[in-house]
Structure formats: structure tokens, C-alpha cells
Design goal:
There is one protein chain. It contains two helices and twelve strands; from the N terminus they run βββββαβαββββββ. About 30% of the residues are buried. It has about 180 residues and is mainly beta. The chain has one domain: Pnp Oxidase, Chain A (Roll). The strands form three sheets. Strands 3-2-6-9-10-5-4 form a seven-stranded antiparallel beta sheet. Strands 1-11-12 form a three-stranded antiparallel beta sheet, with no helix packed on it. It has a two-stranded antiparallel sheet with strand order 7-8. Strand 7 and strand 8 form a beta hairpin. The structure holds flavin mononucleotide. Flavin mononucleotide binds next to strand 3, strand 5 and helix 1.
């Protein structure tokens, strides 16, 4: 028996990222779990309009998407607890500017640099439609063919019901070879 629990968002656990953007000439960082794939070339960031970071994204139209792993989770979590509207977070991470000018976190093993092509407005949220223009990967987690090795790199996941972080786990099988 299944019970209809109402319109409850149930797409968890979701990968945790830190979105980086320049705001008034300084970097700002925000923790985001509501991000999604739109095509192989695009992703979407769903961010509350009042966030300080949104101001910079709307102005400059470039962001970095830094994928969190356990090695810097504590610092990443902090970016979800404080807002640039009240506290200067620009010194939180050592960073490098990408080709588009988005600030990218040095500690992140995977960072996508993106250009914002559109904003889908929805009930207090800016849903930023982003084209991926470059993906920077730490060589220690790259395969010989320059693919990310997810046996080595374990993104942190977030689940809403108990507000907890998880980690990706075991390989269950080879895709399209299960039968
Ligand atoms: C685990 C976690 C996930 C979050 N995911 C999102 C999200 O997907 N979208 C969003 O707008 N805010 C999200 N937040 C809240 C922002 O990270 C938080 O309000 C932050 O302080 C905003 O910073 P800013 O005002 O400097 O941009 C999340 C916070 C936590 C702790």
C-alpha cells in the first residue's frame, strides 16, 4: 500500500554544490542542493531571490558550480548558514577566476564554470538556466580518458527530511548490462 503524502518534493538525496559568483567586485558563495540537469550542456540552479549571490548572478551572468566532497564539507555547510546580505563571505575560500570571470573554489575537485542564459521566475525563486563552458577537474580523480572517476570522487548528497548529508556509495552494476 502506498499513501499519498501530499505534494512533497521527493527527489533526494541531491548533490550538494557551492555556487560562486562575483557580487560588487567580490566573490560570494552559497550552498545549493536544488540544482538539476537540463541537457548534456546545461544545468539549472534554483535559488531564493533574496540571496545575496543572486544579485551578482543577475548582474554578471556567470557562476561557478563547485561540487562538494567530504574533504571540505564543513566549510561548504557554513555557506548555507550565513548570508552575504549580512556577512562578508568573500574570504571563505582560496579561489581562482575562470575564463568567464567566475570565482572557482580551489579546494573543490570538480568545478563547472557556467554562463547564465536565462532565468525562469517561479514564486520567489530565480531558476538560473546555465550553459557549462568549462569543467575543471583535479587530476587525482581523472581517468586516462579525462573522465571523472566516481569510484574515487564521492560527491556529498543532501536529504531534506532530516537535513543530513550523505555520501555516494557502492557500485550496484554495469549500466545497460543488467540483464
Ligand atoms: C543543505 C543546504 C542546502 C541549501 N540549498 C539551497 C538551494 O538549493 N537553493 C537556495 O536558494 N538556497 C539553498 N540553501 C540556503 C542558502 O545556502 C543560504 O540561505 C545562504 O545563506 C544564502 O547565502 P547568500 O545570501 O550569501 O547568497 C541551502 C542551505 C543548506 C544548509
Amino acid at each position: 500500500m502506498k499513501k499519498n503524502t501530499g505534494a512533497q518534493l521527493a527527489l533526494y538525496p541531491a548533490p550538494v554544490i557551492v555556487v560562486g559568483a562575483m557580487v560588487d567586485g567580490k566573490p560570494n558563495w552559497t550552498l545549493v542542493a536544488h540544482a538539476g540537469v537540463m541537457a548534456h550542456s546545461h544545468l539549472m540552479l534554483s535559488m531564493v531571490k533574496a540571496h545575496y549571490t543572486n544579485k551578482g548572478i543577475r548582474e554578471n551572468k556567470v557562476v561557478s558550480v563547485n561540487v562538494v566532497d567530504a574533504s571540505w564539507l564543513k566549510e561548504a555547510d557554513r555557506m548555507g548558514c550565513i548570508s552575504g546580505n549580512k556577512t562578508d563571505k568573500s574570504g571563505a575560500f582560496a579561489y581562482t577566476l575562470g575564463e568567464n570571470g567566475a570565482p572557482m573554489i580551489d579546494a573543490a575537485k570538480v568545478t563547472m564554470e557556467c554562463t547564465v542564459e536565462d532565468i525562469y521566475d517561479l514564486k520567489g525563486f530565480d531558476n538560473f538556466i546555465c550553459r557549462i563552458t568549462g569543467t575543471y577537474v583535479d587530476e587525482s580523480i581523472l581517468t586516462e580518458k579525462d573522465k571523472i572517476d566516481y569510484r574515487k570522487f564521492k560527491p556529498v548528497l543532501f536529504q531534506f527530511p532530516t537535513y543530513e548529508y550523505l555520501e555516494t556509495g557502492d557500485v550496484l552494476g554495469a549500466c545497460m548490462k543488467m540483464n
